[in-house]
Amino acid sequence: MTMTNLAIAELLARSVEEVEEVKRRSFRRASRGALAWPEEAASVLEQDRPLTELHAIGPRLALRIERWVENPPALGDAIPEARSGFSTLSVGRSIIDGNPSWRSELRADLQMHSTYSDGTVAIEEMALAARSLGHSYIAITDHSEGLRVAGGMTPEQLAEQKREIDELRERLSDAGIRLLHGIEMNLDEDGEGDTGPKTLAPLDLVLGSFHSKLRRTSDQTPRYLAAVNNPLIDILGHPRGRMYDRRAGLHADWGRVFDRAASTGVALEIDCNPNRQDLNAELAAKAAAAGCWVSIGTDAHSTYELTFIDLGVATVLAAGVPRERVLNYMDAEELLEWSAKRKMSALDKYGKGS
Ligand SMILES: [Zn+2]
């Protein structure tokens, strides 16, 4: 048996309990980091390269992992739910290697953050980095006002962002990348957003995401049905709200949720952050079988995190989602048309009020 990065992540997470308090943080960090390593640790060793090349690995952890690779411990099947159903960027890259056109023909990344909310980088820098990854357009989707902890934007800041994006458009189109102005609107547990239709109307794309009460263990089908019925949102962001090794995410009757989403036309996101992978391949396959639209977004808060897009592409491949149902394979005009149609139905429902 060879030791995969996923198995290393699990072993690192398990070791947290055994090591002294001061070391726990670095073990947790390395465990989460292992999901995002671009190549297998075992193959790094095979090439006689040091494991310290990998993110979050210092000399001591490198030694420990080396021992695991030489002599793989049995994992058993008692993997906790908060660490189950994950893949790794390294596995994702090998899936793409077998299907390169799925990566080269992808046009967009549909979720990312800038300094307007909790991102670390200005819009222009994100756009240029996305261009260098081969995207022809991106959606900037900073947090809405209700998510204070993530620096959610007031309507004034959103308007200021719109002005900046309008100014950047010409310069960036010369550079070969187009900007869509979106938002990640916070949804409450009843599936309602915190931003009115009038504020949302000028935007190109609206993601709606749950960020609270994500540790509930009871069935949450009603909040999902309300969310996918909400005509103001185009995409349900990181649907389960899970985080590797922190929380398992919400539970629902996914068959019912996906059937409803297919009929209302809301897209379901595959959030590419290796610690989210939300939806993962298993649920993305169910969503695709129900006929849902799917959207791929890195949820990047830095230029480095834009590279996580490969994990999303690998997820649609592993799930067998037809390319025609993935928003990111549309060109920007097609996507705008798609969302404009949804907007019309929102106006029918809500009128033109605030
Ligand atoms: Zn979010």
List bound small molecules.
zinc ion
Into which percent range does the helicity of residues fall?
A: 40-55%
> What's the overall geometry?
globular
Largest sheet: 7 strands, parallel
Q: Percent of residues in beta strands? A: 5-15%
Strand order of the largest sheet: 1-2-3-4-5-6-7
Low-confidence stretches: none
Number of helical stretches of at least 4 residues: 14
Class by alpha and beta content: alpha/beta
- Terminal CA distance: 60 Å
Count of individual beta strands: 7
Order of helices and strands: HHHHHHEHEHEHEHEHEHEHH
Radius of gyration, CA atoms, in whole angstroms? 20 Å
Q: Indicate the mean pLDDT.
A: 94
Report on this model:
This protein has 354 residues and is of the alpha/beta class. Helix content is 43%, strand content 10%. It has 14 helices and 7 strands. It has helices spanning 5-15, 21-34, 41-46, 59-70, 89-97, 100-104, 123-132, 155-175, 197-200, 221-229, 254-264, 281-289, 309-319, 332-350; strands at residues 108-109, 137-143, 178-187, 205-210, 235-236, 267-271, 293-297. The chain has a 7-stranded parallel β-sheet with strand order 1-2-3-4-5-6-7. α10 packs parallel to α11 (254-264). The longest helix has 21 residues, at 155-175. The protein is globular. Bound molecules: zinc ion. Residues 184, 209, 211, 237-238 line the site of zinc ion. Zinc ion is lined by residues 184, 209, 211, 237-238.
